[in-house]
Write a structure and sequence with these properties.
The structure is a homodimer.
Chain A: E1 6-9, H1 17-25, E2 31-34, H2 38-46, E3 57-60, E4 63-66, H3 68-78, H4 86-111, H5 114-143, H6 155-171, H7 179-189, H8 192-198, H9 210-220
Parallel strand pairs in A: 1-2
Antiparallel strand pairs in A: 1-3, 3-4
Protein name (chain B): Glutathione S-transferase alpha-2
Pfam families (chain B): GST_C, GST_N
InterPro entries (chain B): Glutathione-S-Trfase_C-like, Glutathione-S-Trfase_C_sf, Glutathione_S-Trfase_N, GST_alpha, GST_C, GST_superfamily, Thioredoxin-like_sf
């Protein structure tokens, strides 16, 4: 059977949001099955649907794919968003990993223990401003093109846009000294599929607030 | 210029060892420039050689590739150890990510604060025995083949062998109830390139003891 991919995850961004973004940018419609209780998760495990007892899991082309990177790589390859040869893929992979590292750092802030929050927030801001954003500003400056790799849209442009939106939510002033990244953000945001995903009513997920996290923590005991 | 890949990292396993393993299994000779002082690391950064100011970094085919997964993907593609099509690659990626997750968990034990060590060791043992090894035993059982994916050697067989050797060092009893994994370990270990890498005098790195870690911690302030 083929048909739409089915995404299994919580009703939250977490480690699924980059997959939603990539599918949306590729113009692929998808269904979501939300895990709303520990029993839902237990059932997925018991039925042998989760290779390592974890989500994200995506049903696609007859497979039950787990692991964020495996899912992203498959979608990027299938929809030709992964460069034209292995050298372009190497750049795309290197940039993607940097983006995932910083995204993870920022995401972790919402679930980090209160006594560590200040130090971790300061570190995340420092890394954003002094390590990651300068690296990507430099890439754009080096070739002067509209996209990061190969002068056309690839997965990494979508990953970077997603990150820039999180950085903006986190502390918009962090973007001030990166004119090329700001232009990149508007440019990618205006691509038709992306524009659609950015509009209200799409399957994009909103940030969770402290109260929602408390509730999720009680239900899923993390 | 081409020539041998040059690996930049500390004289330790860390996040470079899986790259050493993959190159060795592919029969590729490589050079290592070991980082022996904070000044060595500072120089690499200052010269603009590290995209995100981090190692591992590998000079290969004119690129200065950072990020473990980007490096592994490039080597696996170049030396045809990445499956025959995108569905095989999806399995290889999913399995590889599970292996990297458990490897990271075991590696982190040596540098974790003493007061957390007991709990983290127990968790790592539990995950090894009840999550990861059963998942791979099941894959081997499901198809009865010698290799994990596509009935021939791929990167993921090398990653799994490396993990099984770490598990054995960690607590050999964890392997007892997995006969197919034990047979897999002997089988992959006897492949000529792998056998050579397993012999003393190769570029494989030994486990560090507590004293070496203390010294590294002082020098590199982690």
């Amino acid at each position: 059977m083929s048909g739409k991919p089915v995404l299994h995850y919580f009703n939250a961004r977490g480690r699924m949001e980059c997959i939603r973004w990539l599918l949306a940018a590729a113009g692929v419609e998808f269904d979501e099955k939300f895990i709303q209780s520990p029993e839902d998760l237990e059932k997925l495990k018991k039925d042998g649907n989760l290779m390592f007892d974890q989500v994200p899991m995506v049903e696609i082309d007859g497979m039950k794919l787990a692991q964020t990177r495996a899912i992203l790589n498959y979608i990027a390859t299938k929809y030709d968003l992964y460069g034209k040869d292995m050298k372009e893929r190497a750049l795309i992979d290197m940039y993607t990993e940097g983006i995932l590292d910083l995204t993870e750092m920022i995401m972790q802030l919402v679930i980090c223990p209160p006594d560590q929050k200040e130090a971790k927030t300061a570190l995340a801001k420092d890394r954003t401003k002094n390590r990651y954003l300068p690296a990507f500003e430099k890439v754009l400056k080096s070739h002067g093109q509209d996209y990061l790799v190969g002068n056309r849209l690839t997965r990494v442009d979508i990953h970077l846009l997603e990150l820039l939106l999180y950085v903006e939510e986190f502390d918009a002033s962090l973007l001030t000294s990166f004119p090329l990244l700001k232009a990149f953000k508007s440019r990618i945001s205006s691509l038709p599929n992306v524009k659609k995903f950015l509009q209200p009513g799409s399957q994009r997920k909103l940030p969770v607030d402290a109260k929602q996290i408390e509730e999720a923590r009680k239900i899923f005991k993390f």
